[in-house]
Amino acid sequence: MNEPVPSAQRPPPDAVLTDIASYVVDTVIESDEAFATARLCLMDSIACMLLALNFPACLQRLGPVVPGATLVGGARVVGTKFELDPVRAAFNNGCLVRWLDYNDTWLAAEWGHPSDNLGGILSISDYLCRAGAALNWPPSGSRPTVRDVLSAMVKAHEIQGVLALDHAFNRVGLDHVLLVRIATTAVATRLLGGTKQQIIDALANAWIDGGALRTYRHAPNTGPRKSWAAGDETSRGVWHALMALRGEDGYLSALTAPIWGFQDALFRGKPIMLSRPLGSYVMEHVLFKVSFPAEFHAQTAVEAALQLHSTVAPRLTEVDRIVIETQESAVRIISKTGPLNNPADRDHCLQYMVAIPLIFGTLTAAHYENDFAADPRIDALRAKMHVSENPTYSRDYLDPDKRSIANAVQVFFTDGTSTPRVEVQYPIGHRRRRADATPLLKKKFLSSVENRLPHERAQQLLELFEQPEKLEALQADALMTMLTPE
Fold it and tell me: For position 295, what pLDDT does the model report?
């Protein structure tokens, strides 16, 4: 029988585990900008969740793990009547946030969508408010408020985003969603009242899980798992948090153990470290998808194509070639030629995402569906596209003071004429364009909420988000009640 290693013989915790746990327990977020951005992020994520309910493929993934396995008084799933255990609820809510690829984005050596962690944060917060009194969770007896949700979001964004700055998991074949598991584990353990040691233990187990392969994001295997992979990982984070509260031991050299640790086994011996102190940098700089659901490396390309629509659309049969300049990451992950097999393939194809606005003057989630994709004009334009890296765009993409996601598009016609070269360096969801984005995010929110809930409720919710003190004072379950259909 295997016995736990006596604490005196255990190695000291890996520094990354200790630093993350100390940040989650000891740091009080004081940045007004971070909380203001977190409120926008919460509002925008709710919009994405409610909009995702329009898609049958998403609905197929929701509900209990087996029919009938609901939990009265459990954590709720936004926009539905489901009440589930917090692990399964985290999968459901995380799936909704991420389904349409329309939620916030972080781009660095690794990329991802930090609001994916909201699946776990909302679910554990709702569960604690509804069932916590009977379980004495958290030990303080206080129930999470929306302010607590926002603080957890800032910290989850920071953990995921700072780890992404210098660690390109994609280059070793691992999917970025492993960082969702790490971030959710840390903040969920704290929401449950976990100690610093329990957070370290939970994080160690979360790292030992390894990482999902990126197989489902790339041809010829691109498929819908990329839309629920983050929901899977945020639910796993909640599971590790709950296990830690039960006393589950951690494996404190989970990252650095020779041969068997994460670094040697999965990251080619490269060290995992935090390249900057943890604070609120990521939330303050996070990107929003405001106008259209498009993979973020393509957002400015879509904006450029929209500007060219009125010139190009009447002359589609005269197009000779289309030149797209982009960043290295976009060339590597979303530049695709040949057949596109499904919506998951199309919404990660730079050429497809440029062709649609050139033809139709807009881009919505519906444009990725099979009916729209059958239009022969789309593939005809894709076949004439030439994609190349602009080295300046690649440098500015990684510059911590710029974080641009630039693209340029120019269309050449058979008669020798051409459109202007349209360059867009910063998408409308960028920090440098936050003032422009805010009213559009509110419009996106109102439209999405009215899609599933009564008009009066939608107006109440919008008014609530415009009153920060009132919003943040609410218990988390009160907000979830407002997001539950009658």
Answer: 86
